[in-house]
Fold this protein.
Amino acid sequence: MTPHRQITPDWLKRLFAWGMAKANTADNSAIKLQGCNSYETMAQLKQAFFADLKGRVLEIGPGAGANLSYYPTDIQWIGIEPNPFMHSYLKQEAERFGLHNIELRLGSAERLEIEDNSIDVVVSTHVLCSVTDLVTTLREIGRVLKPDGRFLFIEHVAAECGTWTRRIQDGIEPVWKTIFDNCHPNRETGEILENVGFESIDYQQFNLSFPIVSPHIAGVARKKTVEIVEQDSKSSFNTQIV
């Protein structure tokens, strides 16, 4: 049975968009990463993750555009954002940071209106917690990625079972997802990522100082490719599966 997602009223969507836009002014340099070997702040992490983006970049759930300031200006950026009240903020942020080759679409991560094997990089930051069907979303990401395409993610995840943080996450989930647009604080995103068929997954774990959503993962997954060799013609071609 497909999970049912509670319909968020327009007034709450509008309020959420306004709040996300206000959050764009936050200094990511002030968000410290605890237990992360490579980066000290969220700003450093995003700068490293997004500095070398090229080609067609698809961002699912870009919100009000918190990542746009970190992107190279010569990419072709496609944003799929289900909240229509985010779109005006996204356009403002794209113009502010010099991204002119953009395409903004209304849609969901579970059903991407994107061609197979057509995207160089998919980006998700703090989105996988709120999709209705995580496995379907990840398979859609794999479908649209080009051979050897990359999926970059920064996500908050469930704390380790048996910890006080996990007990609080489990207990508060029904209220939390109602207030925060279907966000599940106890979603075991890392474990699911490792079992949907990507060629490789490399991520690190760290914590933020924020309660409930402190445990985080950040990393890259690459699309699985299988080389098939035609013996008769001595030629080869690739079939991609995820």
Summary: Confidence is low (pLDDT under 50) at residues 227-242. Residues 56 and 176 are 34 Å apart (CA to CA).
